[in-house]
Design brief:
heterodimer; A: mainly beta; six-stranded mixed sheet; five-stranded antiparallel sheet; about 0% helix; globular; B: mainly beta
Chain lengths: ~110, ~110
C-alpha cells in the first residue's frame, strides 16, 4: 500500500523568509496530492492540491510541485507570516488517501 | 449546509466498553473516511468507504468496525475499547478525486 514520508518534522523561519516542506510517496498509482494546514485544536483544512497530470500549481504565496518520476512533491510558502504558523500535512493516493506525519512550522516575527 | 458532522465530540470510556462514533455529511459525497490523530503520528487512516455499500481497511483497522449506513452516514465502532485507542478521531468525506472535507473531530479517552 501507499506510504508517505514527510520532512522536516519541525521548521522555524523568520517572517518574510520562504519555507519548503517535502514529501515522498511509494505507490505509483497515486494521482492526487493535497496539502492541509491544521491549527491547534482545529480540523485540517485544504490549502492547495495537485493532480498527477500537473507538475506545478501556485496560489498566491503557496505553490506545490510534483515529480512523478521521483515520487516526490513539495510545498513552498513564500513571504511567510506569523499566521502561517501551524502543522502542515501532505497526503497521497487515489480513493485511499494516506497522510504524512506532519511538519510544525513556526514563523517568528 | 453543515458539511461533515461528528458525534460525540468528547467521550471517556473504561477499558472493555464499547461505543460508536457517528458521522454524517450533507454534501452528497460518495467517499467517506475515518482517521485517527495521535501526537507525532499524523493522520492515520482506519477505514474508508469509496461508495455506498463498500468499505475497505486503511492503515490501522484492528480493533475497529465500520458501517456505511447509507450515502450520508458512516459510523465507527469500538467493540472493546483499549487505552491504545485514546485519540482524536476525524471523519471526512469527498467527491471523486476532490477535496477531503473533515469534521470537527471526536476526542476519545480510554481509561
Amino acid at each position: 500500500g501507499e506510504n508517505v514520508e514527510q520532512h522536516p518534522s519541525t521548521l522555524s523561519v523568520q517572517e518574510g523568509d520562504s519555507a519548503v516542506i517535502k514529501c515522498t510517496y511509494s505507490d505509483s498509482a497515486s494521482n492526487y496530492f493535497p496539502w492541509y494546514k491544521q491549527e491547534l485544536g482545529k480540523r485540517p483544512q485544504l490549502i492547495i492540491d495537485i493532480r498527477s497530470n500537473v507538475g506545478e500549481k501556485k496560489d498566491q504565496r503557496i505553490a506545490v510541485t510534483l515529480n512523478k518520476t521521483a515520487k516526490h512533491f513539495s510545498l513552498h510558502i513564500t513571504e511567510t507570516q506569523p499566521e502561517d504558523s501551524a502543522v502542515y500535512f501532505c497526503a497521497a493516493g487515489t480513493d485511499k488517501l494516506i497522510f504524512g506525519t506532519g511538519t510544525r512550522l513556526q514563523v517568528f516575527p | 449546509n453543515a458539511g461533515v458532522t461528528q458525534t460525540p465530540k468528547f467521550q471517556v470510556l473504561k477499558t472493555g466498553q464499547s461505543m460508536t462514533l457517528q458521522c454524517a455529511q450533507d454534501m452528497n459525497h460518495n467517499s467517506m473516511y475515518w482517521y485517527r490523530q495521535d501526537p507525532g503520528m499524523g493522520l492515520r487512516l482506519i477505514y474508508y468507504s469509496a461508495s455506498e455499500g463498500t468499505t475497505d481497511k486503511g492503515e490501522v483497522p484492528n480493533g475497529y468496525n465500520v458501517s456505511r449506513l447509507n450515502k450520508r452516514e458512516f459510523s465507527l465502532r469500538l467493540e472493546s475499547a483499549a487505552p491504545s485507542q485514546t485519540s482524536v478521531y476525524f471523519c471526512a468525506s469527498r467527491q471523486a478525486d476532490g477535496e477531503l472535507f473533515f469534521g470537527e473531530g471526536s476526542r476519545l479517552t480510554v481509561l
